[in-house]
Amino acid sequence: MGDVLRAVGLCKTYNKVDAVKGIDVVVADGERVGLLGPNGAGKTTTLLMLLGAVLPDHGSIEVAGHRLPRHRSRAMQHVGFAAGYLPLPDRVFAGWYGVRDERTAVDETLERFGITGFADRLCSSLSSGQRTLVGIVKATLHRPRLLVLDEPTASLDPDIALKVRTGLLEYCTSTGAALLVTSHDMREVEMLTERVIFLARGHIVANDTPAAIAALYGYDDLEGVFLELAETHGR
Amino acid sequence: MSWRRIRVVIRRHTYVLWRAPHRWFDIAFWPLMDVILWGSLGTYIAQQDAGSRAGTPYLISGIVMFHVLFQSQIAVATGFMEETWSRNLLNVLTTPVTEFEYVAGTAVFGMAKVLLALTTVSVTAFIAFGFSLDEIGWSMVPIAAILVIVGWGVGVANIGVVLRFGQGAEILTWGTNFILMALSGVFNPVEALPGALQPVARVLPSTHAFNALRTVMGGDPLPVDEIVIGLVGGAGFVVGGFAFSWWMLRIFRRRGFVTRFS
User: Fold this and answer.
1) Rounded distance, CA B5 to CA B7, Å?
2) What is the DSSP letter of B190?
3) Higher confidence at residue A152 or residue A67?
4) Distance between CA atoms of A153 and A151, rounded to whole angstroms?
5) pLDDT value of position B184
6) Is the Cβ of B90 closer than 8 Å to some Cβ of chain A?
7) CA dihedral B77, B247, B98, A78 (to 10 degrees)
């Protein structure tokens, strides 16, 4: 099994503030990884670098064997991205991602997440939770090898959030896609991921299974770990 | 380069235009008002001096061809700005669509806007002032080609400015059109400009396009030298626009400016 994402020695400084200080993020094919940390830990900067939207000051990034930023277009053919805070345009086009049979791809993906009724609706006519759901559907339309989700269920009701998690797990299991997800919902992380990378002040402070990290810090679950790290390292 | 992805960019902007009536102002309303304004002015001048080279045909042909430049520039620049207005830029940046494919899509879509605007101005000019595009004839094609290319170059450069300086710099997208209108001699020869501005005007490829237009409207053959200078200069504008925007995009990515738009 190869690595779908290999980022080594990433550093990023904004206005003399070190946002990310030499971290490695490696995700194997089919692996589900959580990227956690308190506000200001460097999660979003790291994700944006992994997506090619921000250039690292140092370090190298390869997605599906394609080096960023030089081969960004080829790399992004293997990546699906969604963020709970990002709005969507009125119409979502599968063609952006090189999908040939757009209608079939849309129908299959909507069915996977149980929202077939959204097929012909404009995004502006959906509620914010529904739009988040469509954003995740959009991210999986082209069957990417790596799904990158930033706070995917932040604005969703618990029942919809559960539906999303179930759909994501089913998607990753059935297609063998890897998942890299950030979230402030520790139960969600425990349900979705096999491994967690904890960031604090731009450093990786823990990198293991959720259970192992919880045990390392002397807690039963990740919630306690998060609170402790937020208290000691939060900005 | 993927034609499929370019087609998707075109489809996206077609839907945006279709669903947003206010965006028709650029294509229909402003061109209509411009023809009425300049056509009326030309009519008045002709009433004062029947032999004037600032009569209706000169002014209307000037404004008609200026809208070729205006539309091709504004389509490329506002195509990109549409992504910032709808906070969709990060979504676009994380697709396989390349920068060139995106600009190519907006430029091709811009051609459709040029045709729509040309239809508006030519029909209005014909109905209101009896001016027909036949008066320019086939010379319109190379003249329009220069103006379209210059519009693309300026539009791409304006994208670079917005990437670097944020949405506050959007005003330049419209502002540059007025600068080009004043300096390119749309309605008057370069010699009528203040002396200090004349060298600047002569550097602009659009000036040579409008020089050619005035020559044709005066009943002379199309000046090939003006067309060649205009086309070469226009190509330089496109290369320069892309180089500038590429530089700005690197700064945008290095400084993490994407968060401004998302």
Assistant:
1) 5
2) G
3) A67
4) 6
5) 93
6) yes
7) -130
The pLDDT value recorded for residue B213 is: 95
Contacts of B95 in chain A (CB under 8 A): 76, 96-97
pLDDT at A90: 65
Q: Which residue of A has its CA nearest to B96?
A: A73
- Residue A220: Cβ-neighbour burial (10 angstroms; 0-12, 13-18, 19+): exposed
- Kindly determine whether residue B90 and residue A86, on different chains, have CB atoms separated by under 8 Å: yes
Give the integer Cα–Cα distance in Å for B64 and A178. Answer: 55
pLDDT for residue A63: 95
> Considering only residues 197 to 256 of chain B, which have any Cβ-Cβ distance to chain A shorter than 8 Å?
250, 253-256
Residues A68-78 have a mean pLDDT of: 92
Extended beta strands in chain A, E state: 3-14, 17-28, 32-36, 58-63, 66-68, 79-83, 146-150, 178-182, 195-200, 203-208
Q: Any idea which fold A3-233 has?
A: Rossmann fold (3.40.50)
Nearest-angstrom CA–CA distance, B192 and B180? 15
- Which of the four pLDDT bands, split at 50, 70 and 90, describes residue A192? very high
Asked whether residue A104 carries a pLDDT value surpassing 70, the answer given is: yes
Cα A220 to Cα A235: distance, rounded to the nearest angstrom: 25
Who has greater pLDDT, A98 or B248? Answer: B248
Residue B12 pLDDT: 87
B1 vs A: CB within 8 A: no
- What average pLDDT does the segment A43-54 reach? 93
Cβ atoms within 10 Å of A31's Cβ, excluding its own: 20
Nearest CB to B96: which of A53, A98, A100? A98
Which neighbouring-strand residues pair with A8?
A: A60
Residues of A in Cβ contact (< 8 Å) with B11? 93, 95
The C-alpha of B151 sits at a distance from chain A's nearest C-alpha, in angstroms, of: 26
- Cβ contact, residue pair A89, B86, below 8 Å: yes
Establish if A11 touches chain B: CB-CB under 8 angstroms.
Answer: no
Q: How far is B165 from chain A (nearest CA, A)?
A: 16
Q: Give pLDDT < 70 ranges for chain B.
A: 52-54
> Residue for token digits 């040029």?
B114
Question: Angle CA(B95)–CA(B252)–CA(A201) in degrees, nearest 5?
Answer: 90
Q: Domain ranges in chain B?
A: 3-261
Report CA torsion sign: B86, B248, A144, B7.
positive
Instruction: Give residue-wise pLDDT tens across range A118-141.
Output: 777 777 777 777 777 888 888 888
Residues 6+ apart with CB under 8 A from B162: B77, B80, B81, B84, B169, B170, B173
What secondary structure letter does DSSP report for A183? -
Chain-chain contact of A74 with B96 (C-beta, under 8 angstroms)? yes
